[in-house]
Amino acid sequence: LQHLVTGSALLMQAANLYYATMHFGVLFVFLLWLFLRHRDRYAPVRNTLALTTLACLLIQLVPVAPPRLLPGFVDTAARYGQSVYALGFDADELSAMPSVHVAWAVLVGWYAVRIGRGPWRWLGPAHALLTVLVVVATANHWWADAIVAVAVLCACAWLRHGLALALRRTRRRHDAPPAPSRERALTV
Description:
Elements: H1 2-5, H2 9-37, H3 39-59, H4 76-79, H5 100-115, H6 123-137, H7 143-175
Helix pairs in contact: 2-3, 2-5, 2-6, 3-5, 3-7, 5-6, 5-7
């Protein structure tokens, strides 16, 4: 994919800018929208996000180089002076697998469609698709990084849902009135 788009400096600079800014920006706006407009859905989404981020960070303890550091690929952000690593962020350049960018973008896309109403909700999946294309085109991630990120997100969403169901069942049992006694009352 990178070889198809590196011929356009404008396209690559736009992709680098999207990679650097939309990752946190879109997630922040999405979470704010959820909190203000769909408060009842905020906690489950937040918990899924937290589990997914934690799982991705744990997996990233095993270093995996992004394509841009290997021969045959171009570090487009460095080429155009747009590297997020040059700004002094304390980010691990060898933590490509899985892509947190993709995990967060797909989370936004999935829940935007499920929760939102009207045509604006389709911006979420559009952002997810564009993020996948951008992270691969800029050689910050392999296709496999994106696939594993989606798998991690799905596993964490399933885990969060299962934990929520188990907690609800436990609360129901705890809050239920005591069962009637089977002993017969003595009558005088």
